[in-house]
Amino acid sequence: MRVCVVGSGGREHALAAALARTATVVVTPGNAGITTLAGDLPITCSSDAPEEIDADLWVIGPEQPLVGGLADRLRASGRPTLGPGAEGARLEGSKKWMKEVLVAAGVPTAAHEAFTSPDAAEAYLRGMRPPYVVKTDGLAAGKGVLVTESLPEAIADVREKLAGRLFGDAGRAVVIEEGLAGPELSVMALCDGIRAVPLAAAQDFKRAGDGDTGANTGGMGAYSPVPVATPEVVEEVMTRAVRPTLAALAASGIDYRGVLYAGVMLTEAGPRILEFNVRFGDPETQVVLPRWQGDVAEVLLAAAEGRLDTVPAPTFPDDLAAVCVVLAAAGYPASPRLGDPVAGVAGALAREGVSVFAAGLAAAPHTDGLVTAGGRVLGVTALAPTLAGARALAYDAAGEVSAPGLWCRSDIALAASTPTPRPPDYEEARP
Ligand code: AMP
Ligand code: GLY
């Protein structure tokens, strides 16, 4: 089988590596790091448009081409495609519409209201209790959400967004919602229009700094499995959120074939859906796909062809844990410095169980070396029997890679891989 993967980042590299176990993969446009690190795997990059690439299956990574209707165009010419059409992709393209779908389908989510008028939005905020949550309606590269305890900050944010000064037209409507609290999970489900099967849950780290401080980023790391994501929790997310949403889409004539990614908060009242994305998560894919046992290409093709019932469900062994540490360029996220030489990738890859997924990498002019070409430069993923082992291996391998100013968070998967001290047993504690 030949598979065309659309996109250029670490997520697409991880998809390509998993697909290449059983298929030949072309990534468009990909990046120079994917080509350089392919090694013996049947992975190449091409600058041709997806429509011009010869393949048996097209897998679309990022949200922008999905919202722009690439999957519709590919399917219209008979090409099996994993990724929703423009109508389904509106779940991610408009938070306002997503919330309408969730409410209509009875999916548990934060109470909310959508606004285009700054005065009405301000009046609503004044009637709420903190924390205040203000979401940009349209696509904002993962940076459109403000969560704050400060009413003046929330009001200023709403006014800036609605005036088009923060995210242009994407911000001309906002969703204001009740603040929730609890651990977060990413549950990605593969959908074939009718059926949905879950992949392993993951947790990502969106903030730049240790302890979830600092600016929002595209994601600084991830791990899987997630100890709080028990099979019962994942089943509840599937039963109460993913399957009702898929059914509601189908009932309105939307044949949703692709990944439905639920951003979930585990509140004291049960799981609540913060958002749906219409694609694989980045960097969740870099930890979930390496854990997947089985023929990934066969299953993704079955989803694209509307026949998930004909293939084995994906399995993810509990004793195969994955941790991904993202290495970011100097100055990321505000103003990443590009063009710095990157060394030591071969040293990282020399460790058993380690993969390097190239994100913002380009070929250095006149050499066969690599230089930084984006904010998130690469992800180092390690597999080991335990999260603690995978975390230690990922950081050890990441330490091999160097570039001027290259940095990472130091607490990826730390809390999840540190056993919580158990209270002393009452009987034992008695004299
Ligand atoms: P989203 O893009 O909707 O996932 O939001 C980005 C981040 O904002 C989430 O990962 C949460 O950490 C936070 N967030 C979103 N909605 C809420 C909410 N209702 N209450 C508290 N935090 C939220
Ligand atoms: N990791 C968050 C996302 O892919 O949107």
Q: In words, what does this structure look like?
A:
The protein has 431 residues and is an alpha+beta fold. Helix content is 29%, strand content 26%. The protein is built from 15 helices and 23 strands. The strands form 6 sheets. Strands 3-2-1-4-5 form a 5-stranded parallel β-sheet, with helices on both faces. A 5-stranded antiparallel β-sheet has the order 12-15-18-23-20. Helix 5 crosses helix 6. The longest helix is centred in the middle third of the chain and has 21 residues, at 231-251. 49% of the residues are buried. Glycine is lined by residues 142, 204, 219, 277, 281-282, 284.
Which small molecules are bound?
adenosine monophosphate, glycine
The proportion of residues in beta strands is: 25-35%
Major sheet: 5 strands, parallel
Which ranges are low-confidence, i.e. pLDDT below 50, for 5 or more consecutive residues? none
Core attributes:
single chain; binds glycine; alpha+beta; 431 residues
Tell me the layout of helices and strands.
Blueprint lengths: L1 E6 L2 H10 L4 E6 L2 H6 L5 E3 L11 E4 L2 H5 L2 H7 L4 E2 L3 H8 L1 H10 L7 E4 L2 H9 L5 E5 L8 E4 L2 H12 L11 E5 L5 E9 L3 E3 L4 E2 L2 E3 L3 E4 L4 E4 L6 H21 L5 E11 L2 E8 L7 H4 L7 H9 L16 E8 L12 E2 L2 H5 L4 E5 L2 E3 L6 E3 L3 E9 L2 H12 L15 H4 L8 H4 L2
Parallel strand pairs: 1-2, 1-4, 2-3, 4-5
Antiparallel strand pairs: 6-9, 7-8, 7-9, 10-11, 10-16, 12-15, 13-14, 15-18, 16-17, 18-23, 19-22, 20-23, 21-22
The protein binds adenosine monophosphate and glycine (GLY).
